[in-house]
Amino acid sequence: MGYKPVEGWGALPQGWSFVEATAVAVDAADNVCVFNRGAHPVIVFGRDGAFKRSWGEGLIRRAHGITIGPDETIWLTDDLHHTVRQFTPDGKLLLTLGDPDKPSIAHGGKPFNRPTHVAISPRTGDVYVSDGYGNSRVHKYDPKGRLLKSWGEPGTDPGCFNIPHNIATDAGGRVYVADRENSRVQIFDADGTVHARDPLGFGIAFRVARRKSVVAPELKFNTPGRPDRINTRGAFHESAAPLEMTHTVFMIDQVDKIVPFYTERLGFIASDSYPGRGYFLRGGASNHHHNLFLLDVGKKRGFHHLAFELSSIHELFGGGLNMTRRGWRTALGPGRHPVSSCYFWYFHSPCGGAAEYDFDSDVVDERWVPGVHPQTPEMFAEWCLADGMADALLYKGIQTADTIKSKG
Question: Model's pTM, two decimal places?
């Protein structure tokens, strides 16, 4: 498709001129609305360039963005007024978002501090506002103007912004944000998750969030010389209630291509490794031994397992036995990993891959010294049961003298 300039298109009335025409929008009838910083903020032309009308005189502090919604209403973003306003096509005010002339605290996250643009979801009618010069956020409103959520903060990481300057949506509900000073366009779903793919084609997603503190139960153990649980029976667990999801594991190939992407591009830190085979990676601000484990199993790619951290080894056994009784088939375990130090029990997942219960994983910080480990069975598991404990659960002789009779 080729485009050619149409010389002389858009004839203005005598004595009029554009002053910094900042944005243009086209309605369903191919009328062209030009938003500018002159005396006549919204100037409307027909498709042939003939002047039709203007409106907005005396209403605009500084023109910045214009958007025409699916219902043909016109949304004007006025960055020095700190508002987004909805108008009819002939300029009647319908709705105002933001407090006129009252900016929010700079980069405080609340609407608005010099907003820049608006996009309307064609699927839901929800309104997305990029905010902007004095903030680093995207705000999502319902069609009635009620704030639904906001996301983003200053920075260069995925989901962060340095002047979110323009915004658009597509028919699938995705949201595109022009992150101007970071020289990029970020693509989000409707709830603010940015989506991308790594060099091997795995879908990855990022969302700026704040972790909630884990409230763990108070545990007491009796160690010789240091009794802590006195006149109280130890707890027995009939099931498990994981405290958090700690890591996920993916099967990969092309180690030399994928590992640098996560460490150099995304800032993951290698806690330990089996060189050329497996890499334990944690997020830059994480204290988990690993949030991501990349395992080269040889020309195979895909999800391997997701780990759920428990409060004690008693809960690990109790939860694992409960899973076994309910028909979940053991993939491996129980056992213990020398690397990361944790106890484990893996179960086949009906969704594919496996689910892992784990307990007592290493907690690390910047002082942790990464290890380089040999690829041996002993370095994978200090000990483990290959087929779980189903047979033990079914063995009724455990409460009879049969257990001490010699066999032979």
Answer: 0.70
| Mean pLDDT, 10 residues at a time, the chain of 408 residues | 88 92 96 97 96 96 97 97 97 97 95 98 96 96 96 91 97 94 94 87 83 86 92 92 95 90 93 95 93 92 96 95 93 95 96 95 96 92 81 55 47
N- to C-terminal Cα separation, the chain: 86
Domain ranges of the chain: 23-206, 244-394
Q: What does CATH list as the number for 23-206? A: 2.120.10.30
- CATH class assigned to 244-394: alpha beta
Q: What is the tens place of the pLDDT at every residue in 148-193?
A: 999 999 999 888 999 999 999 999 999 999 999 999 999 999 989 9
Q: What is the pLDDT of residue 359?
A: 96
Query: Given the structure tokens 């391997």, which residue do they identify?
Result: 304
Q: Are 124 and 163 in contact (CB under 8 A)?
A: no
